[in-house]
Amino acid sequence: IDGAMFNSGQCCCGIERIYVTESLYDAFVEKAVAIVQNYKLGNPLDPDTTLGPMAHKRFADEVRAQVSQALDQGAVAHIEPFSADDGGAYLSPQILTNVSHQMRVMREESFGPVVGIMMVTCDDEAITLMNDSDFGLTASLWTADADRAARIGRDIETGTVFMNRCDYLDPALCWTGCKDTGRGG
Q1: Considering the chain, what percentage of its residues have pLDDT values greater than 90?
Q2: 161: which strand partners?
Q3: Which CA distances in Å does 74 have to 15, 37, 54, 59?
Q4: How many whole angstroms separate alpha carbon 8 and alpha carbon 182?
């Protein structure tokens, strides 16, 4: 969840969509909501702040529009607006469930503190959904089974695959994407 919300979601390889296996889904959503509810939106110079503003009001407005459209299409919001949300650059984080790939929040890069979480029944379904994107910069797989991660990673259309981490760059590694994110490497 921190990988989706870090820097108010404004990271080029931040997590935009989450697919969770059926057996772990409810517990995952519950824990994710608890984490986000404990964030403190505020001035980044305040040492108690854990979530700062978006870079510009227009970026926050785009995230608000994506969330609003998803809610109109049946998504469920799990986070109540934070008191510091000023309707401008200070934007409350949001976790959405009951999302689908017909929603902009699951198709476009939000680049903000919002993430949609979908339940999947198997690895093949997760791979299909991960590949159902115009973008392909990074994917983050969370599993104790390195062979499973390697198998899934080979089938994902993306430039970089992380295992049990996200948003980490090593200057010794190739950093590129595919599809509308880059040419691959």
Answers
A1: 74
A2: 139
A3: 22, 22, 26, 23
A4: 24
Q: What is the model's pLDDT at position 183?
A: 65
Q: Give backbone dihedrals phi and psi of 61, rounded to 5 degrees, phi first.
A: -60, -35
Tell me what percent of the residues of the chain surpass a pLDDT of 70.
95
Sign of CA dihedral 48, 60, 116, 10: negative
- Name the β-bridge partners of 19: 118
3-class secondary structure per residue, 65-107 = HHHHHHHHCCCEECCCCCCCCCCCCCCCCEEEECCCCCCHHHH
45-53, Cβ contacts within 8 angstroms, sequence gap of 24 or more: 51/5, 51/8, 51/93, 51/113, 52/7, 52/8, 53/8, 53/88, 53/89, 53/90, 53/91
Pick from 142, 120, 143, 114: which is nearest to 132 by CA? 120
Biggest CA-to-CA distance, the chain:
46
- Residues 4, 36 contacting (CB under 8 angstroms): no
- Ramachandran assignment for 91, one of left (phi > 0), alpha (psi -120 to 50 degrees), beta (any other): beta
